[in-house]
Amino acid sequence: MSAEKIMHSLSTLDLERNGFPELRGGNLGVRIACTDEERDAAQALRYRVFYEEMGAQPDERTRRLRRDIDEFDEYADHLLVIDHAISSGAKGVVGTYRLMQGDAAQKLGRFYSSNEYDISPLTEFPGRLLEVGRSCVDQAYRGRAAMQLLWRGIASYIFLHRIDVLFGCASLPGTDPEPLSNELTYLYHNHLAPPALRVRALPERRVEMLRRDPQALDHRRCLAGLPPLIKGYLRLGGYVGDGAVIDTQFNTTDVAVLVKSELLADKYYRHYERRLRDALD
User: Could you say which protein family the record assigns here (predicted)?
Assistant: First the structure.
C-alpha cells in the first residue's frame, strides 16, 4: 500500500476522536485533546515542567494560574499522552505537544517561531506546514514509551492532514551559549538545512552556532549532550536553521528544527500499513 493510499484510508476510517485515531502502547495512549479540561491539563503539565522544574520565569498571570498559556494555544491542536491506568481523561495527561497547522497560523497572523526566526523560506514553500512546540513529558514518564507515542502521534497527524514540512523551535538548557558551543557547532556543521528551507535567526536575536573548530569535535560526545527531542529530529533526517536564539523567559538556548514529512512517514510506514490492514479486514 502506497503512502498516499495510507493517508487516504486513514482519513476515511471511522476514527475515534476529532478524526484522529488514539494510538495505544500498554496503559499509555496518544491522541488530540478533545475538551477544555484536557487542554487545561496540558497547560498545567507545561507549567510544572517548564516553570517549576526547568526554571522558566513566569509573569504574574502565569504564576497565579499555574498554567503555561499563550495566544497560540487557542489556534493549535494539543497532542496528549494519557495514562489510562490513572484516567482516560484530563487527569491522565502525562505528556503533550502543541501542533499548529499553516491554516491556523494564517488566522492568527503568524507562527510562534517567527518570534525568533525569519521563517519566510518555509512560509513561501509550496506545501502544507506544521509547527510543533511546547513538548514536555511528566518526569515519571520520561522513558522510551512516552516519547515513541508522541512521535507516532505526530506521524499519524501528518498522514491525516497531508503535511509536507514539520518545523519548530527546540531547546537546549541554559542561556549561556558558551557551555553549549560543541553541541551548537556540531549541529551547524553536520545538520544545517539546505538553502531552500534554511530559516535564519532574527538579526537582533542571533547567536552564532559555529563556535569551535568542527574538525576537533568528538561527535559521539556532542550527540550525547543533545536533548532527546533534538536527537529524535536528527534520527529522522531533520535539519537545523542558521543561528541560535536565547530565550531568557524559558531559560533555554533555542535552535530551529525542521523535517520533511516523507522522512517521518517512511519511519512509521509499516506501522500504519499494519494498522490499516487490521482495521479494514
Answer: Belongs to the acetyltransferase family. OlsB subfamily.
Report which of 76, 91, 81, 85 is spatially closest to residue 30, judged by C-alpha positions.
81
- Specify the pairing of strand 239-240 against strand 252-260: antiparallel
125 is written with which cell numbers?
Answer: 514553500
- What is the torsion angle, in degrees rounded to the nearest 10, for the CA atoms of residue 64, residue 65, residue 68 and residue 71? -100
Could you give the CA distance from residue 121 to residue 119 in angstroms, rounded to a whole number?
5
**Three-state helix/strand/coil letters over the chain:** CCHHHHHHHHHHCCCCECCECCEEECCEEEEECCCHHHHHHHHHHHHHHHHHHCCCCCCHHHHHHCCCCCCCHHHCEEEEEEECCCCCCHHHEEEEEEEEEHHHHHHHCCCHHHHCEECHHHHCCCCCEEEEEEEEECHHHCCHHHHHHHHHHHHHHHHHHCCCEEEEEEEEECCCCHHHHHHHHHHHHHHECCHHHCCEECCCCEECCCCCCHHHCCHHHHHHCCCHHHHHHHHCCCEECECEEEECCCCEEEEEEEEEHHHHHHHHHHHHHHHHHHHHC
Beta carbons of 263 and 193 less than 8 angstroms apart: no
User: What residues does each domain of the chain span?
Assistant: 3-280
The fold adopted by the segment(s) 3-280 is Aminopeptidase (3.40.630)
7-48 tens-digit pLDDT? 444 433 333 445 677 899 999 999 999 999 999 999 999 999
The pTM is what?
0.87
Q: For the chain, what's the residue count?
A: 281
* Closest by CA position to 229, among listed 163, 157, 173: 173
